[in-house]
Inverse folding.
């Protein structure tokens, strides 16, 4: 197979050597100037921009080994183009980039594999198989201890090197112990520059406790302790010369049970993120893992938007009610008459005539009973299509006559013609009512997109 390299991380060198050892070829490199300068054996490989790899059909798969923004952008674009990627996880990638790559994987079904080399160390593979078959009994506790040599004059541990050292070990602990959902991080010997020891504790329901520690040392030390029912198992830094070859074989061939998936990388970044929050808040952080998909993201976003739309609708409703009461074009007497049932509208008359509808005749009788008991006035809504003062006067005369016949005193003085209502105001209020409810209606219609969103692909 023909491979390409994007990035200049030195961690890519063992993978490149493993590719050559397995009979594969590295045919192109991009964004790898520093790596090529320090490893001249690869300087003869053709250089290109990462954009060229998007359309290069000769390249079968790509190794991503770098932490710059450009490398991250290249990884996302290449994954979107369907190029299989073997990615060396680095802390600057962060949970956000890991999640984005996971969504791209679900959408394009591209192969993404994190280069967690510890998963391919023969001693650790054998140990995981023995633990999985309960050959060693139940696991009581897991612990990884690291000693990191100083790369400068400082004797304290910096947060960046703590995170970089922890990432692979977090995946190892979750591989051996299970999916942990509680994270507690602590620092000892804190100074302005760093700390003397870092501790990370992982816990979960029904899972063995897992602890990771790092301190400064003269030489690099890595030690795994597994306490089981049948006694402790101690494993010093195992030789990993065969690990890159095993990883390449798994990446290009059939997947083994211990092979990491991109979901494992996402969980490792999540734990690292939770450790930072634990330090800031000085408490244990609970993790809630969800299956990543475009559908899940869409539902999450629509839930947030829906809460905002409901609040906006409530605020607009209150504003509309307030505006309507403050700027009502009719006077107070007409509004009170309407509330009391003493307002006859244009719809109570036959079209273009001074004849009451049968239903309005019954209303006039009820109005007469009320006018006899209370010193109020009845109002008549003027015609509006088109305005006709002669028709309005004939209608008023008809009502006065009818009320007088029903025994209402001073019916002529107590039957008034209401002032014409501004059509512009009515139009404005109709527009405002539509503007109030339209956003919520549009949002509810968009909920139907959930039904056509892509289902979650299996991980």
């Amino acid at each position: 197979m023909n491979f390409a390299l994007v990035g200049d991380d030195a961690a890519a060198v063992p993978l490149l050597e493993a590719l050559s050892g397995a009979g594969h070829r590295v045919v192109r490199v991009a964004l790898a100037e520093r790596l090529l300068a320090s490893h001249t054996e690869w300087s003869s490989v053709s250089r290109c921009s990462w954009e060229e790899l998007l359309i290069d059909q000769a390249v079968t798969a790509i190794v991503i080994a770098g932490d710059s923004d450009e490398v991250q952008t290249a990884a996302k674009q290449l994954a979107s183009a369907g190029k299989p990627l073997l990615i060396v996880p680095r802390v600057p990638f962060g949970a956000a980039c890991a999640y984005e790559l996971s969504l791209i994987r679900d959408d394009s079904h591209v192969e993404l594999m994190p280069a967690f080399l510890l998963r391919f160390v023969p001693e650790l593979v054998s140990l995981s198989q023995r633990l999985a078959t309960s050959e060693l009994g139940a696991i009581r506790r897991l612990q990884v201890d690291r000693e990191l040599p100083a790369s400068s004059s400082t004797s304290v541990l910096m947060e960046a090197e703590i995170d970089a050292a922890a990432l692979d070990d977090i995946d190892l602990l979750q591989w051996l112990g299970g999916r942990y959902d509680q994270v507690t991080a602590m620092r000892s010997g804190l100074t302005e520059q760093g700390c003397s020891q870092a501790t990370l504790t992982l816990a979960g329901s029904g899972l063995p406790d897992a602890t990771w520690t790092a301190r400064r040392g003269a030489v690099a030390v890595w030690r795994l302790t597994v306490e089981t029912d049948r006694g402790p198992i101690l494993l010093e830094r195992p030789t990993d010369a065969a690990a890159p070859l095993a990883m390449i074989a798994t990446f290009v061939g059939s997947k083994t049970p211990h092979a990491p998936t991109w979901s494992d990388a996402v969980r490792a970044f999540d734990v690292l993120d939770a450790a930072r929050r634990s330090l800031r808040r000085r408490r244990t952080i609970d993790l809630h893992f969800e299956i990543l998909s475009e559908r899940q993201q869409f539902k999450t976003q629509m839930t947030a938007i829906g809460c905002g739309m409901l609040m906006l609708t409530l605020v607009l409703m209150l504003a509309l009610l307030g505006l309507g009461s403050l700027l009502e074009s009719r006077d107070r007497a007409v509004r009170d008459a309407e509330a009391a049932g003493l307002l006859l509208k244009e719809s109570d008359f036959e079209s273009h005539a001074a004849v009451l509808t049968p239903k309005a005749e019954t209303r006039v009788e009820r109005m007469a009973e009320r006018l006899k008991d209370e010193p109020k006035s009845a109002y008549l809504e003027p015609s509006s299509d088109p305005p006709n003062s002669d028709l309005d006067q004939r209608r008023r005369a008809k009502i006065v006559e009818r009320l007088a016949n029903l025994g209402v005193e001073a019916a002529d003085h107590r039957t008034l013609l209401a002032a014409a209502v501004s059509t512009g105001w009515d139009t404005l209020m109709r527009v405002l009512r539509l503007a109030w409810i339209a956003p919520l209606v549009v949002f509810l219609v968009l909920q139907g997109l959930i039904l056509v969103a892509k289902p979650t692909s299996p991980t």
In short: The longest helix spans residues 294-326.
